[in-house]
Amino acid sequence: MSDLAAGLVRGDDGLTRCAWGGSTPDYIPYHDKEWGRPMADDHRLFEKICLEGFQSGLSWLTILRKRENFRAAFAGFDFALVAGFGEADVERLVADAGIIRHRGKITSTINNAKRAVEMKAEFGSLAAYFWGFEPPADERPQVVDWETIRANPTTPASTRLSKDLKKRGWTFVGPTTVYAFMQAMGLVNDHIEGCTCREDIEKQRGGFKRPVA
């Protein structure tokens, strides 16, 4: 019988991880080195929120395996460039077998790039805007476990951010999609108790300088 709490696995390297992060070799470096670490780079923030939109209805593993193709297709997620994409680019992307060829999600990414340009002009950076929605301490669970996360695919903070993005004209940004974005970009630390990454990320978050408008 395993001595690990539900939602944890121990890898061949002896490290204990969130179960999803140890479920396939493709996930291990993403879980260990990226997911949950605080991010202030505008291009990576834009990339992630767009890819979460593409992920809707699919597994994140599918998107992760195609991420480099997405980066090539969408100009490295430089939103200033993507905002200039036209109908010829839409047709190019719909025909690109290396990405998810969903016309609605493709046009959404172009739309969101235009909204991102507006956001940067207003707030100075996307990072300053998004980090303004970091949940306050009294909204963060004291103990993070698998059942808590599974039972709460949205939070008050993700609902607030989703509503504000939609008001600004963003699309494919429902509260569940936005919460996954917040988890991945470190606005919350949802590595569960017992995961080898959790304490390190708490320290990283503690020393992270929050961007401001």
Mind summarizing the main beta sheet?
2 strands, antiparallel
Helicity range: 40-55%
Work out the number of β strands: 2
What overall geometry do the principal axes of the alpha carbons give?
globular
- The first-to-last residue Cα distance is 51 Å
SSE succession: EEHHHHHHHHHHHH
> Using only CA atoms, what is the Rg?
17 Å
Low-pLDDT regions? none
How many helical stretches?
12
Sheet-strand content, in percent, reads: under 5%
Mean pLDDT: 95
Structural class: mainly alpha
With strands numbered from the N-terminus, the spatial order across the biggest sheet is: 1-2
What keywords describe this structure?
213 residues; mainly alpha; two-stranded antiparallel sheet; 52% helix; globular; zinc
Describe this structure in a few short sentences.
With 213 residues, the chain is mainly alpha-helical. 52% of the residues lie in helices and 3% in strands. It has a two-stranded antiparallel ribbon.
Task: Describe this protein's structure.
This protein is an all-alpha fold and 213 residues long. Helices cover 52% and strands 3% of the residues. A hairpin with a 5-residue loop joins β1 and β2. α2 runs antiparallel to α7 (103-123) and α2 (42-55) crosses α11 (175-184).
Give the arrangement of secondary structure elements.
Elements lengths: L7 E3 L5 E3 L8 H7 L8 H14 L4 H6 L1 H7 L5 H4 L4 H8 L8 H21 L2 H6 L14 H6 L4 H12 L7 H10 L13 H9 L7
Antiparallel strand pairs: 1-2
Helix pairs in contact: 2-7, 2-11, 10-11
